[in-house]
């Protein structure tokens, strides 16, 4: 066999292996991985790689269903089944399996392994490089599958008996784990600009349009944590929440100072939804 795949005890040719759609790795990138080079069935620096793998899982609060020694045994057995002398041994653990929900699903983790041919680099050769600004943590505007920070934030909200977690960058409020967040202040609807720090939510755009239709002034600008706590109203928006009012953040009462305006906006949102879909009760 030239390449092998493994999933929770089942193994076979890599290109024929499948995994369940409900694996957390498919929806959230919710897992950790490591990889090592292997030559003639000897996995180089395996102890070091396994230690890093377990450390990563612990930091992400993923409970593994096997010990370090058991993992090393699994990897060793799988390496023995492939033909090439030089291979890459890649393994990952995802948080588990469950229908898509940001908060942790409970249950067992899932172990994936992939083994394929790979050559050690020829150190006599030199290579070219390029430079690029490091923007890896500045892509909140992309609806990527890699949602680990959002997943952990959603779990913290669940544990606190809350609906959502509000993110802030320094003193500037950005968005929530899986919603946009907005305030009403002095009769104005205020929302963070649609830049690289937030996902440009479709529901957020709809709120801006509805406010325009109702003659409510809109300010797309940064607002502070203090403004959040002292706003006339706080609301969050997402595909399923439209424009949900908020009455408590970190255990402190918020909003409740502009209920008529909030209701006016919410009523229009529901009217628009009802007219488009036939949804009753708007």
Can you describe this structure?
With 282 residues, this protein is of the alpha+beta class. It folds into two domains: 4-117, Aminotransferase class 4, branched-chain amino acid transferase, N-terminal domain (D-amino Acid Aminotransferase, Chain A, domain 1, 2-Layer Sandwich), CATH 3.30.470; 148-277, D-amino Acid Aminotransferase, Chain A, domain 2 (Alpha-Beta Barrel), CATH 3.20.10.10. It has helices at 24-28, 46-59, 68-79, 148-159, 202-214, 225-229, 259-277; strands spanning 4-7, 10-13, 31-39, 42-43, 86-94, 110-117, 166-169, 172-176, 180-185, 188-191, 218-220, 223-224, 233-237, 244-246, 248-249, 252-253. It has a six-stranded antiparallel sheet. It has a five-stranded mixed sheet with strand order 11-10-9-13-14. Strand 3 and strand 4 form a beta hairpin. Helix 5 packs across helix 7. It is elongated, with a radius of gyration of 24 Å. The relative contact order is 0.11.
Topology:
Elements: E1 4-7, E2 10-13, H1 24-28, E3 31-39, E4 42-43, H2 46-59, H3 68-79, E5 86-94, E6 110-117, H4 148-159, E7 166-169, E8 172-176, E9 180-185, E10 188-191, H5 202-214, E11 218-220, E12 223-224, H6 225-229, E13 233-237, E14 244-246, E15 248-249, E16 252-253, H7 259-277
Parallel strand pairs: 10-11
Antiparallel strand pairs: 1-2, 1-6, 3-4, 3-5, 5-6, 7-8, 8-12, 9-10, 9-13, 13-14, 15-16
Helix pairs in contact: 5-7
């Amino acid at each position: 066999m030239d390449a092998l795949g493994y999933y929770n005890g089942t193994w076979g040719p890599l290109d024929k292996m499948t995994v369940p759609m409900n694996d957390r790795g498919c929806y959230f990138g919710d897992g950790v991985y490591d990889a090592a080079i292997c030559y003639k069935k000897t996995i180089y620096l395996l102890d070091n790689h396994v230690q890093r793998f377990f450390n990563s899982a612990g930091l992400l609060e993923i409970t593994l269903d096997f010990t370090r020694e058991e993992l090393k045994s699994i990897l060793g057995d799988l390496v023995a089944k492939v033909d090439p002398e030089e291979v890459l041994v890649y393994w990952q653990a995802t948080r588990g399996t469950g229908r898509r929900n940001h908060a942790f699903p409970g249950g067992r983790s899932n172990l994936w392994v992939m083994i394929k041919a790979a050559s050690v680099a020829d150190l006599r050769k030199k290579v070219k490089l390029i430079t690029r600004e490091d923007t890896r943590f500045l892509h909140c505007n992309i609806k990527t599958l890699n949602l680990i920070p959002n997943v952990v934030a959603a779990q913290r909200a669940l544990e606190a008996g809350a609906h959502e977690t509000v993110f802030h960058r320094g003193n500037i409020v950005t968005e929530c784990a899986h919603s946009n967040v907005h305030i009403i202040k002095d009769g104005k609807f205020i929302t963070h600009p649609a830049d690289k720090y937030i996902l440009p939510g479709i529901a957020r755009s709809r709120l801006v349009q509805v406010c325009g239709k109702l003659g409510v002034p809109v300010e797309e600008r940064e607002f502070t944590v203090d403004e959040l706590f002292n706003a006339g109203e706080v609301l969050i928006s997402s595909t399923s929440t439209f424009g949900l009012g908020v009455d408590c953040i970190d255990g402190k009462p918020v909003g409740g100072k502009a209920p008529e305006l909030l209701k006016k906006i919410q009523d229009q949102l529901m009217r628009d939804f009802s007219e488009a879909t036939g949804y009753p009760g708007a």
